[in-house]
Specification:
Elements lengths: L1 H29 L1 H12 E7 L5 E2 L5 E14 L6 H12 L3 H8 L5 E9 L3 H11 L4 E10 L7 H4 L1 E2 L6 E3 H5 L1 H4 L3 E8 L5 E4 L9 E5 L3 H18 L3 E7 L6 E7 L16 H4 L9 H11 L8 E2 L4 E4 L2 E4 L6 E2 L1 H6 L3 H9 L3 H10 L16 E2 L5 H8 L4 E2 L2 H12 L3 E3 L4 E6 L5 E2 L5 E4 L3 H16 L14 E11 L4 E15 L6 E8 L12 H4 L4 H11 L20
Parallel strand pairs: 2-10
Antiparallel strand pairs: 1-8, 2-3, 3-4, 3-5, 6-7, 8-9, 10-20, 11-12, 11-25, 13-16, 14-15, 17-18, 19-22, 20-21, 23-24, 24-25
Length: 573
């Protein structure tokens, strides 16, 4: 009997042992991940923070975009003892509404972010508050936010960084996103048994990130923005821009657009477009110099010879195309100087049409320069019918971006070479200090030496005595061309007599060019009822003050009237 009881007791112990082993196996193997996750939730929480990015400088080492250290404030809501008091005290420090903070603390979420991008100088006050209230589940994590010291200056060009993802979302911030780094990283907050955070695991290390120095000069950008603001105030257009590049390197020196936005508050704006790159427009008479260049190269024109220009009109395929003035006889040079539609059309109709369209393609029209995120290509509609060639020669029925036009006119200034636009002066690796200096990129030789020599003289005369004479400087020679294109009106199903694109594209000084400039206005308003809207009256007048200010900023001596010592002309205030 005793022996049976001993066996039975041993059996019970064995079964109990199996149950314990089984239970341990259940916890250790089957439910292991669940319980580890439960423990981690109790003693460890993850916070996503915005990582710092490389700094962006202008050409003079002035900061235009920088990551500023900030704080994110969060709470583990189930463990907050007095939510009303905490919300009240935080409201005083953070300058945020008490009701908003209390609503977040009373939410059903276990973890809430109370504030992001808080000034780091408030850290000591927040730590003291946590200690005073014994609210150890109020979290304070160091993070960063992107800050733009110049606010809206160059806004559409510099772009912006998403305040939550830490990634570039527009402009150069997007273009160089991988080089600048940033994004978000996870930090792990360990807590003791009472829920008190006692350590923060380190942020992930970023490798191969760079500080970037741009080709943009913010002092020139200021000058350009002021000129554009004056133009917008006077003409009240839908859109407008001024783009300045170096014709010898392709460097973008300044780019002002209207509309614009402030990257510090990017979410307040409906559009973040940079119309110098994102939109394409009909170039109007800006196309005419390239028609003359092709006529010279094909040997289909005699310079200096007078050609009949139709006295204000020409019929092509039964369609009448008008001139802005009634010209009788003009030389090919005068066709450009006075911008005769009829003269340009007659030049174009005498050419090999395939080669004319090929010239437009070689100059970069119809192709993205691949220099800016989301850049438009424009469209050169190849139409070999006489009327199609006629409209193409005067910049109608095809479109181009401002940057394409800037680079095409730069090819006239630099001896015939099409360059790729460039924004980076140099990059510096934040870890190693390695310096990278991008070289200029030559797309190809697109204009012959002969046509360049002719165009350089002709475009100088356009400003001195032709359609752009209202932009003539007293101190510096300017070369360029005006352009006007009628907009299509969907209501009328015809070209509008009220809505226009107006342009000026050129470079200065004319003899040794340092800058190419493009000035564009979409639907400028008349100042006087009798005024005739055109590039010569709208875009060209911006030139005079703009050129003088830029050249004097760079301490360049006036080049007019053989003046080389700067003593003949005194600057007028």
């Amino acid at each position: 009997m005793v022996k049976k009881k001993a066996y039975f007791l041993a059996f019970l112990i064995f079964v109990g042992f199996l149950l314990v082993v089984g239970r341990l196996a259940y916890f250790q193997i089957i439910k292991r991940d669940y319980f580890l996750s439960y423990i981690e939730r109790q003693y460890k929480t993850t916070e996503k923070v915005v990582l710092p990015r490389g700094t962006i400088f202008d050409a003079s080492n002035r900061i235009v975009s920088i990551s500023v250290p900030t704080l994110d404030i969060f709470a583990i809501t189930p463990y907050i003892k007095d939510k009303e008091r905490l919300a009240k005290e935080l409201s005083k420090i953070l300058k945020q509404p008490y009701s908003d903070l209390l609503r977040k603390l009373n939410s059903n979420k276990r973890y809430v972010v109370l504030a992001r991008g808080v000034d780091k100088s408030l850290k000591e006050r927040l730590i003291e508050l946590r200690k005073t209230l014994q609210e150890w589940n109020l979290g304070i994590v160091e993070t960063s936010k992107r800050y733009y010291p110049l606010n809206s200056i160059g806004g559409t060009t510099i772009g912006f960084v998403n305040r939550f993802s830490g990634k570039g979302m527009g402009g150069l911030e997007l273009k160089y996103d991988e080089l600048l780094g940033g994004g978000t990283g996870d930090v792990y907050l360990m807590k003791d048994a009472t829920g008190n955070p006692f350590t923060i695991e380190k942020l992930p290390k970023q490798e191969d990130t760079y500080d970037i120095q741009l080709t943009i000069d913010t002092n020139v950008q200021h000058i350009v923005e002021e000129a554009l603001a004056k133009l917008v105030k006077t003409r009240k257009p839908k859109e407008a821009l001024i783009l300045v590049v170096d014709p010898n390197t392709g460097d973008v020196i300044a780019n002002a657009t209207y509309p614009n936005y402030n990257p510090n508050r990017y979410w307040k704006y409906k559009s973040h477009k940079n119309i110098s790159f994102h939109n394409a427009y009909e170039p109007g008479s800006l196309a005419k110099p390239f028609v003359l260049a092709e006529a010279i190269d094909q040997g289909k024109v005699k310079l200096g010879k007078k050609y009949y220009c139709g006295e204000g009109k020409i019929f092509v395929d039964g369609i009448r195309i008008r001139d802005h003035k009634s010209f009788k006889y003009l030389t090919p040079e005068e066709v450009i100087i006075y911008s005769s539609n009829v003269g340009a059309i007659k030049l174009a109709l005498g050419l090999d049409q395939e080669k004319l369209y090929e010239k437009f393609s070689m100059l970069g029209f119809g192709k993205s320069t691949n220099s800016f995120p989301g850049e438009a290509t424009g469209l050169v509609h190849k139409n070999n019918r006489p009327v199609g060639v006629a409209y193409a020669s005067i910049g109608q029925n095809w479109t181009a971006t401002a940057v394409q036009i800037a680079m095409a006119y730069s090819s006239i200034a630099n001896g015939g070479y099409l360059l790729k636009p460039k924004f980076i002066k140099k990059m510096v690796n934040r870890e190693t200090g390695e310096v990278v200096v991008p070289e200029r990129e030559v797309v190809g030789k697109v204009l012959s030496d002969k046509s360049v020599a002719v165009l350089q003289e002709v475009l100088k005369m356009v400003v001195e005595k032709g359609t752009a004479k209202r932009g003539k400087s007293d101190y510096f020679t300017i070369a360029g061309k005006t352009g006007t294109a009628q907009k299509y009106d969907p209501r009328l199903k015809a070209l509008s007599d009220e809505k226009y694109y107006t342009w000026f594209a050129g470079y200065f000084p004319a003899e040794k060019p340092k800058f190419t400039v493009v000035i564009f206005v979409n639907e400028p308003k008349k100042i006087k009822k009798w005024e005739r809207i055109g590039g010569g009256g709208v875009s060209a007048p911006v030139l005079k003050d703009l050129v003088d200010r830029i050249m004097f900023y760079y301490k360049q001596k006036p080049d007019k009237d053989g003046n080389t010592d700067g003593t003949k002309h005194a600057r007028k205030d």
